[in-house]
């Protein structure tokens, strides 16, 4: 699943309502027996993104880092000036043909309204090549591989949650039917006793 690009052209904010991170995804993968390692799922995220009237569950990559090239605030003698400005960075695929555009969103809080840009793959790859974020992902190719693994883990987690919710709903229906049957049998027995 990708986020529909329509409505995000020129948008400067994206509304991320909630996220499901690697603990849920790793647990679902472990529970179902799929052979994905925790290290492969480390940056995997399901972002619940509000767009217009809909909320989309979108597999994406999320990292905690600092954008080293955004600020020119280099302080002499301070090699780690950006440490206090770490933020959550999202790489969200769009439904553009061939995955040629990505939403790059970032903010100090991982949810809510985040500043975002729609980037072409070539621009995103250039940013990776410059070492802009100092993260384990160093190229668009590595991002795509991580996203592929993320999608597999995310689908497993979403299916497990759906199955659980369906089972709970089915269980409630059985309980309601049983309670209804019991109450009807109780009514029948009380009319017999009268």
Uncertain residue ranges: none
Q: What integer value in Å does the Rg equal?
A: 23 Å
SS class: alpha+beta
For the secondary structure, the number of strands is 6
The proportion of strand residues reads 25-35%
Number of domains: 1
- Order of strands across the widest beta sheet? 1-2-3-4-5-6
Characterize the biggest β-sheet. Answer: 6 strands, antiparallel, barrel
Distance between the termini: 63 Å
Output mean pLDDT: 75
- Broad shape: globular
Write the element-wise H/E pattern from the N-terminal end onward.
EHEEEEEHH
Give an overview in words.
By secondary structure, this protein is α+β, with helices and mostly antiparallel strands. It has one domain. The protein is 38% helix and 26% strand. A six-stranded antiparallel beta barrel has the order 1-2-3-4-5-6. A hairpin with a 2-residue loop joins β2 and β3. The N and C termini lie far apart (63 Å). The mean pLDDT is 75.
Task: Give the gist of this structure.
The chain contains three helices and six strands, in the order βαβββββαα. With 194 residues, it is of the alpha+beta class.
């Amino acid at each position: 699943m990708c986020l529909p690009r329509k409505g995000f052209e020129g948008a400067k904010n994206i509304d991320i309502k909630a996220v499901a991170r690697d603990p849920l995804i790793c647990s679902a993968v472990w529970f179902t027996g799929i052979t994905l390692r925790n290290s492969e799922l480390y940056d995997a995220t399901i972002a619940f993104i509000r767009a217009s009237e809909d909320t989309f569950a979108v597999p994406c990559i999320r990292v905690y880092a600092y954008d080293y090239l955004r600020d020119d605030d280099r302080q002499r003698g301070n090699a780690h000036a950006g440490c206090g400005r770490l933020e959550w960075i999202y790489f969200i695929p769009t439904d553009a043909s061939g995955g040629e555009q990505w939403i790059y969103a970032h903010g100090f809080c991982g949810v809510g309204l985040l500043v975002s840009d729609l980037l072409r793959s070539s621009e995103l790859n250039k940013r990776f090549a410059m070492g802009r974020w100092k993260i384990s992902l160093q190229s668009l190719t590595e991002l795509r591989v991580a996203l592929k693994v993320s999608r597999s883990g995310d689908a497993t987690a979403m299916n497990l949650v759906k199955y659980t919710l369906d089972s709970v709903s089915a269980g409630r229906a059985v309980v309601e039917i049983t309670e209804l049957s019991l109450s009807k049998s109780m009514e029948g027995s009380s009319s017999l006793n009268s």
